[in-house]
Amino acid sequence: MFKLKVVENNKRIKERLNLVESTEYKYVLTNDQSKTEDDKLNIVFSERQITELSELLDWIVKGETVYITGYNEYGTKRVDSDNFLYFIVEDQELYGVLHKTKLLIKLKLYELDKLLKEKPFIRVSKYAIVNIGKIEYIKPALNSKLDLLMKNNDHIEVNRSYLKTFKEMLEI
Amino acid sequence: MLEFLSKPFNVILVIFLLGISVFLMGKIIEEFRLNHKLRIKQKSLRITSVFTRNKRQFSLLGAAALAPIIIIALLFMIDLSIEKRNPGHLYQISSATDINFLRDDFYKNTGIRSSHNSFFLNRSGNDFLMEETMDVTTSDTFTGSGSDDYSETNNQVLGVDEMDNALTDGKFIYTISEEGIIISLAYTMEEGIDVLSIAKKIDYTTDDNCGVQFRPAGMYVDDDHFVVVGQNYDQYCDEDSDKVEETFGRLYWHRPNNTEIKVYDKTDFSLENTYKINGNFIGTRKIDENLYIVTNNYIPYNEDEEVNLDEFIPYYTINGEKTTADYADIIHVEGTNPNSFTSFYAFDLNTNEADMETVLGDSGYHLYVSPNNMYLVGKLYYYTTRTSFLTQEDSTINKRETMILKMSINETDVEYSALGMVDGYTLNQFSMDEFEGNLRVATTTGSWGDSINNRVYILNEKLEIISKLENLGKTGETIKAVRFVGEYGYVVTFRQTDPFYVLDLADPQVPSKLGELEIPGFSTYLQPLGNDYMLGIGFDADSSGRTTGLKISVYDISDKAKPTVFSEAVFDYSEFGWTNSSAIYNHKDLLIDLDKGLIALPFVMDNTDEILNYNSGMLVFSFSEASGLTRTGFVSHTDNDSEQVYVYKAKFISDYFYSISNKYIKVSTISDPETILNSLLLQETE
After folding, report:
1. What ipTM goes with this model?
2. By CB distance 3.0 to 4.6 Å, which of A40, B15, B205, B298 could disulfide with B340?
3. What is the pLDDT of residue B451?
């Protein structure tokens, strides 16, 4: 998504911006006016503005916050979608799983899928949507499925028919 | 070999095993590749991960190759490693509702009760009502210049100023009185010590005894600013008589939930700026013109009623202009107890530029600040539930952990950097030290017997543990003093005798114990005297571990492997009565200047045979490599026996020695501190 073009301290600036560059990019980030590219979106910054720039990049990547409403024994909760580890259908009910609790979501899985299409979530089976940011470890199983260890130590399986899209998703 | 392969069965077996190996190798490569891609993907999605897990994943080959016994052994290891930190990741907060939700979630799911520590309880209605009065007593001379040669606060870190209750800038001496601040003219190049007089009094008392009163906690001074940090206290009043009630001989105040900073212009000591913060004061530092303040706002929790967080959200004002923390900017690490807001503030004293960073989670109390980072540590003392790997049953363990909150600072920018955990508890701010980006932390676990473990951890920039040294000291000994100096660490442990350890921390991967010295008694404070000597202040003790007197020691550490006692001074209880010094616990009460060979510390003798026969004064030593410690004097301010005059600080300007008590500032020379040359009455004592 991004290409960084700075003269000095390239590594340090990249680190401070927490930036990952990609070969096919839409944005050029530079501290040198002459390095801008005509067909791209150019962001010219000075080193003093790194914190602000980092916030801007967050915004570009993460976009608008999507809230998901769910229910548990303590009532209705409205939670930033980024905090969910995964969504799963159990006994024909959809649950959103958080670090220590889960919420009943009164939506169909495909409706949720649509709601989260700009967000870093991926469908991994007919029953589950997973937050990419909350995957701790990927372990290939012997039967060519993938086992995802989530941040809360839950295991989610990537079904064979979703394997291809999952692997494509990992490319940047 | 050839013979082995001549049998067809063996060939098939080898091919089969090779086939399996290749298959498993392929899987391992895929596993590695997928996870590498996942990390990059997560980074490109700008997902902040605060912790990397300690838990190692099994590789397929490893799993296939390991014998069942080794697998069982590994299961045991994994079971143990689960006990280790499993802290979460940054939680995205957008609004007060998010915070209320995560608090509900945390308290209901963990069973942890929000600690109702009255120390932190907030109260409303004390929001800076005070009108300040300034009473200029005399202002005869602001002309004349001070000396460049004067004593600064005895700070832990060079360049990072700590606030203190008595200061000098080479011309004035600043002290805190019952009413406010007294600024005394102490020295000018033109007239020397003859100028000693009160230049200005700043009075914070209010006519209304029941009102709110500002009480200074400490001060800073530099070339341009004089800064007073304090809190506004509600005075406790008797409703009927409207008079201040005296409790235990002192006015009784409620603990305030505010912090106030008053910045004065150095040219005429007029009030320039006022910063106010709605939090309990935890700590402060000053680096050049940037002032850093750490405060805490405890948030009550009631599971039946939603708390209105707007009442507790941190804010600051600059000359009345208010800035409130934005919910979206609040940092919360999943898994930490969301019981309070801890806020880190930076103010530029020149431009009034300010920044704040707020963390929702456990708060801390020991503040250590390096030129680039602030570290706040606190105990975690609640129970948590864990699932045993073997039994699959939940069990509760009592965590004895220290949480370290790291903020990076760059002038007025304050930014959350990392959160880390180590076992055990820290002793004080000297338990921490930053060196080449790594943090060294000394902790003690357990309270008695075999359970005690003294450790020194080395953590990287992300506060992940690189290495640790364990079991410092003998059975039952706890850490009494710590000092880190560059590549070395010095630790004193004690129960009966004082092992003084020198640690080699040059290679953060492999810290080691380099030298050891065992002597009676123990030091509670260590301060380097150049590269070759270490000053220790503490107690002498008999063979059973009972303290027998105050002891000031100088260790020779030029040979790190063989530290020795170079020089010491002991003030035995049997001779001096009960002796003590505030330098035992407050390093800022110690005056040290190596160039002048000067060491001075407050000293109290209390002869319990007679009632109230206690004698306070400043104990002065000269130190040189040739003759070690030599006592040069004891400066007392007591005029008669019935009076309680406490000498608490010493300063020098040029060659003059100033001792400061609650009643006087007295001047003598460094070489002859007992001969008083000039004296200034600050206030009458009762």
Report:
1. 0.86
2. B298
3. 75
